[in-house]
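Issue: copy button drops trailing tokens. Both records pasted manually instead:
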Amino acid sequence: RRVFECYPKSASEEAGCARRIITTLTTKAFRRPAGDADVKVMTAFYRAGREQGGTFDSGIEAVIQRVLTDPEFIYRTEIEPARVAAGAAYRISDLELASRLSFFLWSSIPDEELIKLAAANKLHEPKVLKQQVDRMIADPRSQALVQNFTGQWLNVRGIAASEPVVNLFPDFDSTLRDAFKREVELFFASIIQEDRSVDDLLTGDYTFVNERLARHYGIPGIYGPQFRRVRLGADQDMRKGLLGKGALATVTSDAARTSPVKRGKWFLQTFFGVSPPDPPPGVETKLDQKPGEAPKTMRQRLEVHSTNPSCASCHMQFEPMGLAMENFDAVGQWRTTEVGNPIDPVATVNDGTRIDGIKGLRDLTMRKREMFAEVVIEKLLTYAIGRGLDHNDMPLVRSLTHNAAKEDYRFSSLIMGVVQSPAFTMNMKSAAAPVVAASARGQ
């Protein structure tokens, strides 16, 4: 149905129908209007396939084979203007902008509306661009942004590799794993679709659960496999925002236990954009219980880090954040005791700030909301342009953050900031000045 938008009823109709199919196919595959030269090349393949196979379908099959092996289909290419000097910046064409936009928001090719606007050289106009971004976000295809961005930034895709020890966590199964992932995606999608502030990623007092996940969280009255939105009351305060999601508590744990070290480093990297140093070579990092040793809480096992000067200076940067999450076990269930002892989630970071459990960690992040928003923008820009950022990009990131603050960090302000930024709409002509430069983000 996608390919055969027409089908000839007689031999006299074959040529016209083939041309129509070829024009549509090449327009979609090359992400630009098909030119006469494109149609001529593909028509030659159609005729050869038609003659060899003896049917109209054989001719179209040959066209599809030819299209799928064309470099313009396999690669996203951006042509450098001949009149631009080497090393100079230039605005990419509207057709190239359409591809960047569609692969950013849909992880797929631009649709007919985008291509028509781009071919008319109207897509770059601010009002038109804003209308198209709003349309694309509202389109179901924007679910690809939710899935791929949360997978990349929050490592939600890592839940697929999580294998908690069965004897310790017999309740964990593939159904719960899938529910974990779906919860984060639905929560993040609500932030985008409702144009909420990124603050709500931290403080959102609602989540999405089905019966399986609700039972794991201890939320009563939820039945059936379908997900529904639930308001989190005072008894479920720990589940607010991203920090309360079971998926993130699980991917930051070891198979048999929690890991405040891993969780603390993940928190700093994911929410504040700070990457703590790795342990020095030769340092023992295993904290597993030794044979014959009396059971200890994770906090007791970590005391060696505070008493060893070579460890304390680094661990004080991130370990308190991990300890604040200790009420979540290795599969994200809430607990108040460990090996028979009460869990103490209170910790003090190296600047003297006291964190009282998951709520205290959430409050700490909200006090540094600008830093958090800057990280979200940095990750979003990285995802959009398909390359890592360096120090040269940071003035742009800070500028985008400053502008988004004027709109209370609403997600639409982040998206529009990225798609209107020079990093997204501009390119720089290479010194060697090749005719075609490969796109930064291959799909």
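Record 2 (pasted manually too):
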Amino acid sequence: MQTGEKMIRIVPMKAEHIPDAVNLWKEQFVRYCYSNSFPDFTAGGLPVINAYLKEQTEKENAIIIKRDSDIIGYMAWMYFDFHKERTAFLPTAAHAASPHDDIRIYEEMYYHAAQKWVDDKRFNHLWMTYSDNHPLREKLYDIGFGSYVIDACQSTGALNLSVTCDYEISSSGIKDVDELLAFANLSNEYYTASPVFLKRNEYSAAEITEFLKEGYILTARDKGRIIGVMSFSLDPGYHFEHLTAADSSSIKFIGAFIHCDYRGRGIGTALLEKVFAICREKRKSYLHVSFETANPDAVHFWPKYFKPAIHSVRRTINKDI
């Protein structure tokens, strides 16, 4: 590819390219993701990105694109099986492009990488992008990607929720494991049905017990019976996919689920109010959440309180290729 008198070429990433790649990513993070609603991942998370790029470079799963001698973009993907489909995955920290002609740069890198993926029979392509990078999201939509998951975040000091709730909100303990197990597996029926169509593994009593050692599971109860849950962890650490940091907390594990007979009564907001209060008490400045874009209840609830930061998009290649 040639622009004017400058030649653009794609080559495998080498160890000596990693510092320039990280600088590109840092500039992109500040451009699209840095805000009062999101932690500054660059303050302590760059070693995590360096380690990821080093690993993928050694596996020959990384490329850079150069304009003459300048690195203007990179991609570093990982492989795994996603719902039994051979998958190529670009996490948040796995790509960046110069703001000058960035969409064209991304096009060239994806076309190059996608051929490698398909040659390896990786027909499922997952890509995490910044929500505010609208030109890239539109280009990926044109190529055939569709929205799949949103990662959102909020400062725990930004919201002081006040809601009237007629149900008891409390923290769960080991004595509640069997009841939590039944309710958690009930939630899986919701995800399996239309329009989400997401198969989640059944929970076990051992998994719930283990989570309660480090995390919280809050419940809403009506006359002693669980009608809603919200579970979260205080210390996800520096995570190169979701960009959580040392002062982050995260909705995870069971997540949030309200019994269908009790929706629309402020229960989810009451649970979230308690989550924010605990996070502030434990000096966690940010709360993260991930949710499927096909989940109508989640799409209506979480953006009321959280700022979408990262979109995961998915493309499935025609298998007859």
